[in-house]
Amino acid sequence: MPYKFSFDLSRVPQSFFRGLVKAAYKKNMHRRIGRGVRQLAGKLKIRELTGLNISDVFMLVEDLVDIHAKNLLDREKFLKTRKRVLFLPHCSRKYMDSRCRAHFDPKVPSYYCAHCSPDCLINKATALGEERGYDVYVLPGGTCIHQILEKNSYEGVVGVACGQELKEGGELLKNNNILGQAVFLIKNGCANTKFNLKSLGEIL
Ligand code: SF4
Question: What is the spatial order of strands in the sheet that 84-89 belongs to?
């Protein structure tokens, strides 16, 4: 299930995310470092930048730390995997209508980018994934992952999605003994969602 609130973290400096993970790792109790995170959020004007109320911010913050921490914990094993797949969210496409030339295969189910727009985030991410040897799927929803994993023997998965979907996907991977790495959306919604391409490049 996606979040019940909207967020746009694209203006939040990456140093905020790095600071969060460091703080959580140092204390090994990120769900209990409320005061430190509150101060950091205040200092960097997270509420002003995102428009989120502080409890939503905290939910996001906890999820972001969980995701980063899990990435770090699984990193070494993930790097040993050979057959890998990249799952991208269809809502990050430049166009959500017929102007998007992606081919949709309902049997998979997945979109396949036709590279119609050089400035489309999915175009760039697809090219990056393929360049690094990944199979790339542009998914209409998180429930498709199950079907794709059933039909293919992937050892490693990189997923781009909102924090909540990443957590659910993480559970699925864990139950299937597949190693995963995650990149969270820095702007959610039904369309024009965003993720950091540089972060994706570092994960792949
Ligand atoms: S570049 Fe790919 S995903 Fe983006 S609008 Fe074109 S076909 Fe769709």
Answer: 103-105, 110-112, 135-139, 84-89, 156-161, 179-184
The model carries a pTM of 0.82
d(CA 14, ligand 1 centre) in Å: 27
Compute, in angstroms, the gap from residue 119 CA to the centroid of ligand 1.
Answer: 9
User: Ligand 1 centre from 22 Cα, in Å?
Assistant: 36
Q: Report whether residue 86 contacts ligand 1, using a CB cutoff of 6 Å.
A: no
Q: Please choose from 88, 91, 99, 123 the residue to mutate so as to test ligand 1's pocket, defined by most ligand atoms within 8 A of CB.
A: 123
Name the CA dihedral angle for 118, 120, 124, 130, rounded to a multiple of 10 degrees.
Answer: -100
Q: Is the CB–ligand 1 distance for residue 110 below 6 Å?
A: no
What is the Cα–Cα distance from 34 to 190, expressed in whole angstroms? 30
Q: What does the domain layout of the chain look like in residue ranges?
A: 8-69, 81-203
Q: Return the percentage of the chain with pLDDT > 90, whole number.
A: 52
CATH number corresponding to 81-203: 3.40.50
* Residue 1, token pair as written in the block: 């299930």
pLDDT, tens digit, 9 for 90 and up, residues 141-185? 888 899 999 999 999 999 999 888 888 888 899 999 999 999 999
Give me the amino acid identity at 65.
V
Alpha-carbon distance of 90 to 122, in angstroms, equals: 8
**To 5 degrees, how large is the angle CA 162–CA 45–CA 122?**
30
